[in-house]
Amino acid sequence: MNEGLISKRYAKALYLHAADLGEETLLYHRMQILSALLRQMPALSASLKSPMVAEETKLSLLKDATGSDAEPSYHDFIALIAANHRMGALLMIALSYQKIYRQKKNIHVVHLVSAKELPDDALERIRRLTEQITHGNVEFSNRIDPSIDGGFVLHLNDYRIDASVRGQLDQIDRQLKKFNKSII
């Protein structure tokens, strides 16, 4: 079966279970921590996928990695995926849960990449404008990347607006190459 489909099904069931217990928001934050850990620590991910590591050890790793004060829904979830040998899909399940939670709570993810540091009031205006456009809440992050040479790149959910100097130069380069091919 498709791993993407499996992760979506587990995430949906997990969301419903957490919502029944009133823990969906707490679990959302726990899934953010878990997905960040699995991305930043390849050894943890490899240990969870390894058939050489005992299931009890994997459970212990997951409980220790995300904190000892975890919600009952998280413990139920970890036990279920361990019992069904789905530890390899853990990152995808955590990401799918976050996506489902955001959809249910009308939360939009905004990443702004700028060439230099922007003033706090400008960032706040961008965040407020995005909330007005989306009619929802916004999870906003800003990153500085001097390689874009100026301007900004705005990611809103699955949309990307590239208003950077680097992006415009790349576009001109592609057009010139296309034009040169049509001449020859």
Q: Spatial order of the strands in the main sheet?
A: 2-1-3-4
| Named CATH topology of the largest domain | Peroxidase, domain 1
CATH architecture classification of the largest domain: Orthogonal Bundle
Give the integer mean of the pLDDT values: 90
Judged by helices, strands and strand pairing, the structural class is alpha+beta
Strand content: 15-25%
What's the number of extended β-strand segments?
4
Fourth-tier CATH superfamily name of the largest domain: N-terminal domain of the delta subunit of the F1F0-ATP synthase
Major beta sheet, specifics? 4 strands, mixed
How does the overall form come out from the CA principal axes? Answer: globular
Percentage of residues assigned to helices: 55-70%
Question: How many individual domains?
Answer: 2
Low-confidence stretches: none
What is the straight-line distance between the termini?
A: 48 Å
As a whole number of angstroms, the C-alpha radius of gyration is: 21 Å
Q: Element order, helices and strands? A: HHHHHHEHEEEH
Structure description:
This protein is an alpha+beta fold. The protein has helices at residues 3-21, 24-40, 42-49, 55-65, 72-83, 90-105, 120-134, 165-183, and strands at 107-114, 137-144, 151-156, 159-164. The model has no long low-confidence stretch (mean pLDDT 90). Helix 4 packs antiparallel against helix 5 (72-83). It has a four-stranded mixed sheet. It has eight helices and four strands, in the order ααααααβαβββα. The chain has two domains: 3-103, Peroxidase, domain 1; 107-183, Glutaredoxin.
